[in-house]
Amino acid sequence: MLRALSTVLNPSELTGIVNVGDDLTMHGLRICPDLDTITYTLAGLNNTETGWGLAGESWRVMQELGNLGGEAWFGLGDRDLALHLYRTQRMAQGDSLADITADVLRHFGVGITLLPATEEQIATTFTTYEHGVLSFQEYFVKYHHDVSVENVTVANAAQATPSAGVLDAISSAQRVVISPSNPLISIGPILAIPGIEAALQQRRDDVVVVSPLIGGKALKGPADRLLVEQGFSADSRGVANYYQSFASTLVIDIADANDAPLVEAAGMHCVVTQTLMSDDQRSRNLAEVVLDV
Amino acid sequence: MLRALSTVLNPSELTGIVNVGDDLTMHGLRICPDLDTITYTLAGLNNTETGWGLAGESWRVMQELGNLGGEAWFGLGDRDLALHLYRTQRMAQGDSLADITADVLRHFGVGITLLPATEEQIATTFTTYEHGVLSFQEYFVKYHHDVSVENVTVANAAQATPSAGVLDAISSAQRVVISPSNPLISIGPILAIPGIEAALQQRRDDVVVVSPLIGGKALKGPADRLLVEQGFSADSRGVANYYQSFASTLVIDIADANDAPLVEAAGMHCVVTQTLMSDDQRSRNLAEVVLDV
């Protein structure tokens, strides 16, 4: 979504507030999957086949770690690892995640600002019926989100504070766009940080959500399944119910055009367009719709 | 020296007590240069050209870390990094360095036991005239030990305790061999841990030192220079003065044969032989001399 918006806006006009609920410390390294995936994607370095990590990555370290009997189920490519080493060393020296992120973006030539939602370590956590309490990466990578979730909580979020600039970005933005990400586990952990949802409520008229569902299904990941498991319907109405208290407009795909009255009934203005950003033209069209509504 | 001894003894009869004063945490990773160099050497995987690290190593992560502007002066190869990730993850899970070391040795097929001198983090530290206080790796790698040292201290050693098995290994060994390592910075940090020097004193008659000097020079590293800077002479007499209170015999090279009376005068029995372990036969000969004295 950020890449799409950057085709119609100057990158310097864009600020992304990024989920850090997936962040983890593994092998002693601070790993920020969402910040890194977005950075790599904006830099054009992302692996489009896997949907994560870098294109043309090598796996020397992980291969040897597997040989040693180490925890190699969470794939960290050699080049990707360098970023985790870099971030961990700088954090050990007292630098903020926001400053490190800004330097990494500069290194990769990305002009968009990315702000971690908080500097504190929060952790999206899954209570499952089958495997007990799982960390994000256990749920997502180890079990391939193929497990029923009783409850999603964000550890430490209640004590966290928004990063410097986050509340200002929301209050001063011409438009706040909530990406077609997983509402419960990609957007939810941002909302769980005290102050952010209230800041969005203040700007409700300018907050536009792009639905993560097309034809009632998530393009990838467990958004549809999790919506149902957490008491929402896996359709535009469910998404509207989730967002309506702090967002005024829901953009849904033409495949879900019939849902429009349900969205309006749920208290959100509904815009129908093609939401699949499958090429540059469609991405640009969606960006224009989101900015124009 | 351990490899030489293993040519005349069964590996299971050998226990190495290893310096951990060089250990560091960098990029969030616990790195144990001496344990790893010895492990790689005993496994036959060491890089004989550099004197550290693994043969045939690749450098993907370090290259990218350098690109990112990270601290890449301390070279960590991709395969070597896997070991640091493995160790760091296991330590985070509460495993002891000794247990992890034992598992790593088993993985590499090494039958010799290696004990870290202590489980605590101690840090050999250099007070220099020119650059102030330096960590071991700053002194050794960053400044290539080309700097005058006012004082060597081992941070945290006074509060440290020997690892499980260390004092027993000293008290029960048929022979205690002090390797031709740097007395001040490779052996000294082991001696700085309370209890170890006293245990050696109890076994003084069975403690044999192999001098690290040949013709008054260290084969590599700053042993000769540091001996002088710390008030010892850079010759067999200086080495004898350093060790005589807890070691009865000093093995010196034939190049230093003239020093024998000085060693005896310093209170140690002196044995003269070829100490350069340049091939298997010479290594074996030295091992036999050390065990037979």
Describe the structure.
2 copies of one chain form a homodimer. With 293 residues, chain A is an alpha/beta fold. Chain A has 2 domains: 1-21 and 121-293, Rossmann fold (3-Layer(aba) Sandwich); 22-116, Orthogonal Bundle (Helicase, Ruva Protein, domain 3), CATH 1.10.8.240. Chain A has 13 helices and 13 strands. The longest helix of chain A is centred in the first third of the chain and has 15 residues, at 78-92. The model of chain A has no long low-confidence stretch (mean pLDDT 96). Chain A binds chain B through residues 25-30, 58, 60-65, 67-71, 78-79, 81-86, 88-90, 92, 103-104, 107, and chain B through 25-30, 58, 60-65, 67-71, 78-79, 81-83, 85-86, 88-90, 92, 103-104, 107.
CATH topology of the largest domain in chain A: Rossmann fold
Largest interface, per-chain counts? A-B, 33 and 32 residues
The CATH class name of the largest domain in chain A reads Alpha Beta
**Helix count of chain A, per DSSP?**
13
What structural keywords apply?
homodimer; 293 residues; Rossmann fold; Helicase, Ruva Protein, domain 3; 2 domains; four-stranded parallel beta sheet; 13 helices; 13 strands; globular
Topology (SSEs and partners):
The structure is a homodimer of 293-residue chains.
Chain A lengths: L1 H5 L8 E4 L5 E3 L2 E3 L1 H10 L17 H8 L10 H15 L4 H11 L5 E4 L6 E6 L3 E4 H7 L6 E7 L10 H7 L3 E3 L4 H9 L4 H7 L4 E4 L2 E2 L2 E2 L4 H7 L6 H8 L5 E5 L6 H6 L3 E5 L6 H13 L1
Helix pairs in contact in A: 4-5, 7-9
In brief:
Two copies of one chain form a homodimer. Chain A has 13 helices and 13 strands. The longest helix of chain A is centred in the first third of the chain and has 15 residues, at 78-92.
